[in-house]
């Protein structure tokens, strides 16, 4: 029997550049003291890296803060999650990868104190971000609760990301954000759109003012905003029943639209020239999420 997933989205200002993990640990401990039932804690994009306005300073700061995933910072974060017994997404970090390449990488640390998954941002915000793009979609099972998928900020503007995460079985897309610009209004629309067209939960957590524009939110699989923040430092809490995804897909959004059940065995493949590939009806439905048409 799956249990509901209590989560907390920490809409906060970034930790100062160079601050020890212990300073972040205090933030997480204070959050859990206030919301002790939380099982998944999520912070904004690059929360642990600090922030500078001038691009030259920012890029140098990011490069200085970069570490490989087997470095001391990830080890300390994993130990923190294990000590607190929660699933922890500390936003994203600047990862130093193969050949010294920099990646904007989201981490998922488990209650057992392990690095459960890492995701490299596929769509860096060009030309402002000095990262190489990632090359794979990442989902993570939270035993007893369900499966989450990871995206980072600008990834939300590309529907292929949310679609693939949903196809891989994600029931909630966790989207850490560092938006300091006026397009947060559009991102709120995209969060709802990605939830609607994929019939998944979306949890988007942005940086608080004055660094960012806030307005973190949680959207349900039918596109309804369950909770939304203003711009100030705050914590959004919610309890998600991820089995709602199966219900919506089985009966349809608003009891009508079943997009994942669109195709039948007699439908032909649709060529997708943009991708030099095809949409194959036999591969359309996510495995294991709900029965295919005619087999319910």
TrEMBL record:
Keywords of the record: Hydrolase
Name listed for the protein in its UniProt record: Carbon-nitrogen hydrolase family protein
Keyword Hydrolase: yes
A GO term, aspect molecular function: hydrolase activity
PANTHER family associated with the record: BETA-UREIDOPROPIONASE, NITRILASE C965.09-RELATED
InterPro entries (alphabetical): Aliph_Amidase/BUP, C-N_Hydrolase
Domain CN hydrolase: 5-242
PROSITE patterns: CN_HYDROLASE
Leader peptide range in chain numbering: none
């Amino acid at each position: 029997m799956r249990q509901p997933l209590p989560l907390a989205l920490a809409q906060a200002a970034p930790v100062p550049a160079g601050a020890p993990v212990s300073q972040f640990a205090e933030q997480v401990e204070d959050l859990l003291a206030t919301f002790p039932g939380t099982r998944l804690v999520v912070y904004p994009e690059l929360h642990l890296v600090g922030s500078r306005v001038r691009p030259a300073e920012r890029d140098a700061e990011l490069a200085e803060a970069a570490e490989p995933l087997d470095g001391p910072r990830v080890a300390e974060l994993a130990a923190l999650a294990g000590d607190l017994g929660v699933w922890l997404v500390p936003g994203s970090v600047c990862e130093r990868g193969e050949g010294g390449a920099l990646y904007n990488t989201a981490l998922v640390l488990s209650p057992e104190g392990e690095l459960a998954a890492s995701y490299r941002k596929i769509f860096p915000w060009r030309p402002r971000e000095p990262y190489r793009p990632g090359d794979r979609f990442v989902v993570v099972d939270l035993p007893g609760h369900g499966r989450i998928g990871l995206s980072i900020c600008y990834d939300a503007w590309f529907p292929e990301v949310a679609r693939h995460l949903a196809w891989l079985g994600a029931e909630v897309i966790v989207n850490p954000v560092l938006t300091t610009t006026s397009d947060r209004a559009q991102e709120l629309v995209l969060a709802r759109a990605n939830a609607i067209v994929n019939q998944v939960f979306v949890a988007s957590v942005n940086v608080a003012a004055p660094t960012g524009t806030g307005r973190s939110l949680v959207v349900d699989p039918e596109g309804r905003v369950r909770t939304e923040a203003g711009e100030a430092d705050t914590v959004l809490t919610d309890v998600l029943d991820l089995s709602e995804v199966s219900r919506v897909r089985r009966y349809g959004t608003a009891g009508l639209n079943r997009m994942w059940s669109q195709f039948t065995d007699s439908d032909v493949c649709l060529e997708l020239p943009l991708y030099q590939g095809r949409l194959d009806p036999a591969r359309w439905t996510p495995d294991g999420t709900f029965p295919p048409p005619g087999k319910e």
